[in-house]
Amino acid sequence: MYSTRRLRFIGLALAAWVIAPPAFSQAQGRPDSPPKNSQTQQPPEGAPADESSQDPPTTLFPHSEASRYWLSGQMNFILQWHGAFPSPYQGPQSLRPAGENALSRVLTLYAGAQLSDKIELLFDMESAGGRGISDAFGLAGFTNLDVVRNPSLGSTPYIARGMIHAVIPFSSETAPAERGPLSTFNKLPVRRLEVRVGKIGMADFFDLNSAGGDSHLQFLNWTVDNNGGYDYAADTRGYTVGIILDYEDRIWGLRYAGVLMPRVANGIDYQWNITRAHADNFEFELRRGFLPKRDAVIRLLSYFNYANMGDYRTAIRQFEAGITPVPDITAHPLQQTLKYGFGVNLEQGLTKWLTAFGRFGWNEGRHESFAYTEVNQSVSLGAVAHGKIWRRSLDRAGFAFTSNALSADHRLYLELGGHGFLLGDGRLNYGREKIVEAFYTFHLYRGIFWSFDLQHINNPGYNRDRGPVLVPGVRLHLEL
């Protein structure tokens, strides 16, 4: 754990770096989209953009456009803190009301090799260290997407992804493609089926959003960068194992994923017996503008999780019958239950430098929140601007509002003293969790970016009796 003195030293050192006169780039364009949730994503086709064909380097080291091999990396450091806030009571899984700070870090090394012009192997190693404020407890929309939700795992490097990626062409016509850690091909058929098998991150391919989906250059909050209502299959580090089928045409795409679920909520171990647990995910993407001469994307998502999930109503009945001292969602025999949900994801270019986005997510709230966060409904709206208008075209700024909600069953469970894998104040005076976030990212030099972030949270953990809380933060991102 970092001492306050050490954190202050790091903060002062990084601040001095920003104040010092580095070689700021004024050329047009923006950096490649880095990982969200420690996971690299390629900008979705048709996403609003303002890139120039003469973009300057935005990585510290050059990357070949012709080699069959790929090697790159990234480093992301986030320092957040909050002051004391009103809290008449708290539980073991509450956001701590006393002032605190926390520093997280995520380091990733990416590698790839093309076996042919249609098949490649992709692999990366990752280390997630440090921690989040209150060890990532007490908020449904937690303030730092890079934080692993189980701090006891430590920072030992692990395999984040390892997959075979095959492209099956359905047309002879090809289009240029951006090389990156998730695909090293520099051109792809305009009509194709992409098949990925292995260890993957669902957030790399589903619910993408070029304006609200990047914890390395944009927003930091879990329910701004991702759909809070999408309880996507993942272990506590954000990864799973399975297959993705992705059919892409000129202006639309359709994808499916069949993947493993964890054995327990927020668990690190997978349930390998797919008759006991698995997840099915479907998404349709239409790349068509709603405004004349402005790009836009709409994505429609649905998912079905089968796993050893508890039932909030059963847990409440057991408590009322005196079987358990408090409602306990884990007090049930091994079983398979179904949790399903859907999402709508929009992004719309308003100008050459401004993109608006929005998400709506919902899942059935009777069964246990299991893999991502404790949200049964989420609405987000926001916008991101690239600095071209103020002659700093590689800078970016953004503003977003998110409102998260619980189902009646989930709400009553927490009111009676139950707790999930993230929330549990001991009691609850329910209100929607409302989050406002703003950020500004400076491009310093090549692959070096520095950001300021500010989040204001009303009703943390859905509790009107606690908060509000203000969470400032700074971020240093290196794209290698």
Number of helices: 4
CATH class: Mainly Beta
Structural class: mainly beta
Helices and strands, in N-to-C order?
A: HEEEEEEEHEEEEHEEEEHEEE
The share of residues in extended strands comes to 35-45%
Named CATH topology: Porin
Tell me the Rg in angstroms.
Answer: 22 Å
| Morphology call | globular
> Helix fraction?
under 10%
Query: Mean pLDDT score, rounded?
Result: 89
Q: What ranges have pLDDT less than 50 throughout 5 or more consecutive residues?
A: 1-53
User: What is the terminal separation in angstroms?
Assistant: 27 Å
The tally of beta strands, per DSSP, is: 18
Major β-sheet profile:
16 strands, antiparallel, barrel
Q: What would CATH call the architecture?
A: Beta Barrel
Name the CATH superfamily classification. Porin
**How many domains comprise the coordinates?**
1
Strand order of the largest sheet: 1-2-3-4-7-8-9-10-11-12-13-14-15-16-17-18
Walk me through the structure.
- With about 475 residues, the protein is mostly beta strands.
- The chain has a single domain (about 5-480), classed as Porin (Beta Barrel), CATH 2.40.160.10.
- The chain contains 4 helices and 18 strands.
- Mean pLDDT is about 90; it is low at about 1-55.
Task: Based on the model shown, name its key terms.
disordered N terminus; 4 helices; mainly beta; two-stranded antiparallel ribbon; globular; 480 residues
